[in-house]
Amino acid sequence: MHKIILNIKTVTVFAIFMISMFFHANANQTDNILGRWVMTEVVYDDVSVNQLETSNFVYIDANTITEVIQGHGSRQYPYTRQGNVLTLTAGDEQITWQILSETTHRLEVATPIGKYVLTR
Fold first, then answer.
1. Which domain of life does the protein's organism represent (predicted)?
2. Could you give the maximum distance between any two Cα atoms of the chain, in Å?
3. Alpha carbon separation from 54 to 47, 71, 78, 86, 104 (Å, rounded)
4. pLDDT tens sequence across 17-63
5. 92: number of CA atoms within 13 Å, CB side?
């Protein structure tokens, strides 16, 4: 009887652990990109690279993306996310950003302008 209770406890603890890991993994998918990113470079379609100064930023929160580009000002866009696709709204226009690579300290996003390389 003692072994059965021990096995039930073990299975219960394992199930709770697996469920919490599942929810944590799903939360990280949407939350990892949130926050302040420094735009370090833009890689254009012709593979030329524009190395940017440290005063260019992208701020991503749950509902908006704000680009702060030196010499161009600040632009804010509401957005939605489906998987690795961010759909920004600029007036009547829908702009698609595709997440190419996402780690804790580096984010690469394909935009209509080119590939943004963002770090923090």
1. Bacteria
2. 74
3. 21, 13, 24, 24, 19
4. 555 544 444 444 456 899 999 999 999 999 899 888 888 999 999 99
5. 0
pLDDT at 25: 43
Residue 73 sits in the same domain as residue 93: yes
**Long-range contacts of the stretch 97-100 (C-beta < 8 A, 24+):** 97/65, 99/33
Do residues 111 and 54 share a domain? yes
- Among candidate residues 90, 89, 78, 88, the one with its CA nearest the CA of residue 98: 88
Residue type, 96: T
Residues 115 and 68 in one domain: yes
Whole-number Å distance between alpha carbons of 116 and 42: 5
Query: Could you tell me if 10 and 49 lie in one domain?
Result: no
Q: Are residues 39 and 24 in the same domain?
A: no
Measured in residues, the chain has a length of 120
What distance in Å separates the CA atoms of residue 112 and residue 54, rounded to the nearest whole number? 22
- Tokens 């580009």 found at: 69
